Amino acid sequence: MEEIQNKIRREVAQLLSEGKVDVVIGFEQGSLPLRATPFFLRDIANANRLIWSPFCENNLATYLTKMQGKRVGLIAKGCDVRSVVTLVVEKQIQRDHVVIIGVPCQGMVDRRRIEREAGGEILKAHQEGEKVIVEGRDIRKSLPWKEYLYPSCKRCEHRNPLIYDILIGEKLVEEADRAYHEVEFFEKLSPDERWSHFAEETS
Fold it and tell me: What is the pLDDT of residues 25-48, one digit of tens each?
């Protein structure tokens, strides 16, 4: 993901230097482990603060309605772009005021699950290839990040942005039947197993 991150920084710096946008909404490292935080970039000198990682879970499209009258660059995942489309259709924003920097998304990690299973307080976390490394006073774990994705990310059918002005990275293969995996699993259970599963999910 470092390559994606570097491409984002280059594209954003170019947009700002050419005066095509007034501000870019992206992500920077949060003050807490496993979290990225929204970042409003106006100065090219701060472009190196932009990050891209499995911790960039926020939907940045929610800030667009507060940026009326500005030309905005938006770093957006597939699910974020769907929100942008809705805002345009509802005439809450103007499409030509937004430069969509689309990023195909492999999913965001479920930080609450990692925190529950870490076995101690997490003080630092970062990604190394296919792993998320979490560290604390008495812990250091290397976790396969794709196994710790949010359930909604595992079922996602829109990993690629539907619309974009700039695409960062290669498009991902979509799995149209992804949303039905849980249904197929549930159908194979006996009535008693279904009830037990339902009771556990609603506990």
Answer: 999 999 999 999 999 999 999 999
